[in-house]
Amino acid sequence: MTTRHDTPDIFALSEIHGPVLRPGDPAYADEVTGFNLAALHTPDVVVGATGPDDIVTAMRWAKATDTPVAVQATGHGANFPIEKGLLINTARMTDVRIDPATRTATIAAGAKWSHVMAAAAPHGLAGLSGTSTDAGVIGYTLGGGLPVLGRAYGYAADLVRSFQVVTPDGRLRETDPQHEPELFWALRGGKGNVGVVTSLVTELLPLPRLYGGGIYCPGEHTEALLQAWADWTRTVPDEMCSAFTILRLPPIPQIPEPLRGGFWARVAIAWPGLPAEGEALIAPLREAAPVAVDTVEVMDHAALDRIHMEPQDPLPGRESCLLLRDLPPDAIRAFLDQAGPAAGVDFPLLMVEIRHMGGAMSRPSAVEDAVCARDALYFIDSVGIMAAPPAAEAIEQATQQLYTAMAPYGTGRTMVNIHGTPGDEQDRARAWTPEVYERLRHDKAVYDPTNLLRYGHAVTPA
Ligand SMILES: Cc1cc2nc3c(=O)[nH]c(=O)nc-3n(C[C@H](O)[C@H](O)[C@H](O)COP(=O)(O)OP(=O)(O)OC[C@H]3O[C@@H](n4cnc5c(N)ncnc54)[C@H](O)[C@@H]3O)c2cc1C
Question: Which co-factor is required (predicted)?
């Protein structure tokens, strides 16, 4: 059966300055493909937006034709396929303006953290990036934004001053704590549920340098390092940010020697204070197990990617996560049984991680937002690289078993940014508390009553 979404009248999109492409057009595949290759997008039409006007035109057309809309900047969050409707690609909108006087950045829809870091660094400023500066600022921040320096400064969403956003009625709106405060609330943690953001203004921090990197031990010492790290996290000041990771790295040239092809236990460190203090604080970790590689050093903030060493090239990733109330001995045991040396070197997940939460991330935002992870003291996340079956099945099974084993120690909730493939409504709702989810449903009914923005981590309108 042919629906009108199969043959959208794209002539109405002729005012758009960027490309407007349909399946079969030579540039279509490049336009829809993002960082995560696990989801193959096949929308009826993709618009390469060049500015807010293009997004307004696209949204008005979508409203007039009742066409569902999805947004992609980098595709780091592309863990579900967009099979119908309109995809707005914001990747061309990379403008970043720094105001050193107010220590703020105005960041366009398609800018990555690497763009912001490069623009802010000459002023001695930096933003609250996650573990990869290749991710888009807007998508990351709408999902709360769990930063590398989260224990020291809180969530990225907490620092946003204002948004410019096109709501599904096709109106370009400015929102901040004084103007449409409910819209402002829903955008900070509620993901892309109530509009397509064209830019945001965020505070920056005076952080030209930090002390950070990774302490890597051979995988057979996982238990000693994990136990030492878990004990140590109970003693450190709020500003000490760290994560424990088990890595089974493939033998590919993108991974530097001597890490390439190895099985490693790692503690990643990010300390924004004086390097000498940071060095003294992490000394027990360096003595906990034989250290094979130690990259912890004073670094430019813009070199943040060296801390977690996230992949820079597109790949088909299957991620998942769970917020943990605490990390008691039983939880450590369960984690080791699932992903430690006992699981073997052939265990199919590339990385399994526990991040230390708390600190500033447990304090409320100055202006209330929709971030729901403030009660978690730890956070577990994992990534598998989805090759052809049977690898994909093995990854799925290992992921299910890991999170089932960790469930007794969890809050029952995820973070929307790292939730992974969205399931049914009950599954998607796990990214928020029931109260926040209900409030988002009401906001969705106000701003997106016909559910144009229905892809991915979509909230069902009340
Ligand atoms: C290697 C890696 C490391 C990561 N590390 C972290 C981390 O440390 N902390 C963390 O919090 N997350 C992290 N993430 C998750 C990341 O924050 C999310 O995938 C986020 O969605 C990326 O945004 P994007 O715009 O780059 O991705 P995209 O795939 O382009 O967009 C993802 C979603 O964001 C929304 N979105 C994007 N742009 C807009 C817009 N202009 N208006 C409305 N909605 C929009 C849409 O819902 C879209 O589907 C990581 C992901 C990867 C792959």
Answer: FAD
Mutate which of 71, 312, 443 to test ligand 1's pocket (most atoms within 8 Å of Cβ)?
71
Phi, psi of 119 (to 5 degrees): -75, -35
- pLDDT tens digits, 39-96: 999 999 999 999 999 999 999 999 999 999 999 999 999 999 999 999 999 999 999 9
In CATH, what class is 209-418?
A: alpha beta
Per residue in 71-96, is it b (16+ CB within 10 Å) or e — as a string?
A: bbbbbbbbbbbbebbbbbbbbbbbeb
CA-closest residue to ligand 1 atom 53: 76
Task: Say yes or no: do domains 10-89 and 96-206 share a fold.
Answer: no
Domain made up of 96-206: CATH architecture: 2-Layer Sandwich (3.30)
Domain map of the chain by residue range? Answer: 10-89, 96-206, 209-418
Per-residue model confidence as pLDDT tens digits over 203-249? 999 998 999 999 999 999 999 999 999 999 999 999 999 999 999 99
3-state secondary structure of 453: coil
